[in-house]
Each structure stands twice: as structure tokens, then as C-alpha cells.
Specification:
With 234 residues, this protein is of the alpha/beta class. The chain is built from ten helices and ten strands. It starts with a strand and ends with a helix. The protein binds adenosine-5'-triphosphate.
Length: 234
């Protein structure tokens, strides 16, 4: 479904991502793990059209989306949940969710999807009229996931959903990610928390200094001595 081929991104003269290739199949849950500054966010931004790559290609459903603007990439069914979540703090929970459907005009289907998102995120149902800025960090992460789902994506790109959350909240957010994946939406998850990412995903890639150094089944990566030492604190 998503095929990234030899993608390279540089900021000025600094190469942040070099010749990166990865794939996500339909309905698959895949992670990209790596340390601070490895190039994870840069990779997601280049896939989703927020920055232009210097080289390489991005295909979605067999069609090139390389260098398409972000709104056009989103229209094709690829939704990014950025790091820091980016909810609109002065808008209500319900208004934030509806913003996710801004490019749609199928009102009846939007209403049904809103009900589905509330069913997925019961904590938000109780808070639907509350201002998003008053939610806890974990609730804001849930809201960002719900808003992305309102665009009816076929692939979700998640940038560090565990960032800054207390352990119980991390569990709750990852339960939601698993349920989203189980509903048939493919997920590419980037995480510094390698333990959690490898436990959640079927397959993964390891990114070091902008280069993919390892890839494979998550269980194989979790058993790999180099991964255990560098990312699992052993
Ligand atoms: P983190 O987990 O800290 O977010 P990351 O793996 O997502 O890290 P990136 O944010 O993609 O890493 O950054 C990769 C490299 O590119 C880093 O060396 C970073 O300093 C650099 N970089 C990122 N954004 C910019 C920018 N807008 N201008 C210049 N350099 C940048």
C-alpha cells in the first residue's frame, strides 16, 4: 500500500534521511524506531508531503505521491498525527473531531463516523463540549487520533504517540492504536519507546543517523542483540 523508495531528505547541507526504503501493506501495523534525531519525524513529514525530499519516491496504492502537497496526500487516504498532537486548544472536543472531516461533504457518513470515534474513545464522549486545551496530555493524544480517523484514512502515520504520557495513559493510547489497526486501517508508527513499539507492531525498521540499519519481524528485532543493547536498555 505504501512504498517508500530510496528517500533522501536534507536540511541545507545536513542529510537527515538517506536512501530510506520501507513498505507498509494494507492493514499492517509497522513501526520505525530510532534514537533522538535519527530522522523519524523527517521521514513522516516527507511521506505526508509536509517537506519535499531531495531524492527517492513515495507511492501509495501504486501511484506516486512524491512531492504532492500535504492536503492532496491527505485526500488520498493518508493521515498524519503529528508529534505534540496539534489539537485546537480553544475549540471543543466535538469541533476538533469535525475539523478532521473538513475535506468531506458526506454529512450523514460524517455523523456516523463521529459516533464510531466516540465509541472508540469513550473518555472523549463525556468531554465532547469541553475545550480541547483543558484535556490531559493522554486525552489530547486520543483526540488527535480521533480527529485523524474522521478523515477516513486507510493509512495512519503516528509520530511518537507515547511522548510525555504517564504509563497508564500510554497503555490506553496504544490499546486504541491496536483497535484502529484491527479495524483495517494500516499504521506506520514512529517511536523512541522501542519496547512498546516492538510489542505492538508486527514488523519494524530501525533508523540510525538517517539510515535504515535493520528491519524484520518485530519479534526478531526485539531478540536482536544490537537492538536489545541500543534500544531496549539491556
Ligand atoms: P526526535 O525523536 O528527537 O523527534 P527524530 O528521529 O524524529 O528525532 P528528526 O526530527 O527527523 O529526528 O531530525 C533528524 C535530523 O534533522 C536531526 O539532526 C535534526 O537536528 C535535523 N532537523 C530536523 N528538522 C530540521 C529543520 N527544520 N532544519 C534543520 N535541521 C533539522
Amino acid at each position: 500500500m505504501l512504498e517508500v523508495g530510496r528517500l533522501s531528505v536534507a536540511y541545507g547541507g545536513i542529510h537527515a534521511v538517506r536512501e530510506l526504503s520501507l513498505e507498509v501493506a494494507s492493514g499492517e501495523l509497522v513501526c520505525l524506531i530510532g534514537a533522538n534525531g535519527a530522522g523519524k519525524t523527517t521521514t513522516l513529514k516527507a511521506i505526508s508531503g509536509l517537506i519535499a525530499p531531495q531524492g527517492g519516491s513515495v507511492h501509495f496504492d501504486g501511484r506516486s505521491i512524491t512531492r504532492l502537497p500535504a492536503h492532496e496526500v491527505a485526500r488520498r487516504g493518508l493521515s498524519l498525527v503529528p508529534e505534540g498532537r496539534g489539537v485546537f486548544p480553544r475549540m471543543s472536543v466535538a469541533e476538533n473531531l469535525l475539523m478532521g472531516a473538513y475535506a468531506r461533504n458526506d454529512r450523514a457518513a460524517i455523523a456516523r463516523d463521529l459516533d464510531e470515534v466516540y465509541a472508540l474513545l469513550p473518555r472523549l464522549t463525556e468531554r465532547r463540549t469541553q475545550m480541547a486545551g483543558l484535556l490531559s496530555g493522554g486525552e489530547q493524544q486520543m483526540l488527535a487520533l480521533g480527529r485523524a480517523m474522521m478523515a477516513r484514512p486507510r493509512l495512519l502515520l503516528l509520530d511518537e504517540p507515547s511522548m510525555g504520557l504517564a504509563p497508564l495513559m500510554v497503555q490506553a493510547v496504544f490499546d486504541i492504536i491496536r483497535r484502529i489497526a484491527a479495524s483495517g486501517v494500516a499504521v506506520l508508527l514512529i517511536e523512541q519507546n522501542a519496547h512498546l513499539a516492538l510489542k505492538t507492531c508486527a514488523r519494524g525498521y530501525v533508523l540510525e543517523n538517517g539510515v535504515i540499519t535493520l528491519s524484520g519481524a518485530a519479534s526478531d528485532l526485539a531478540a536482536d542483540p544490537a537492538v536489545r543493547q541500543a534500544y531496549l536498555g539491556e
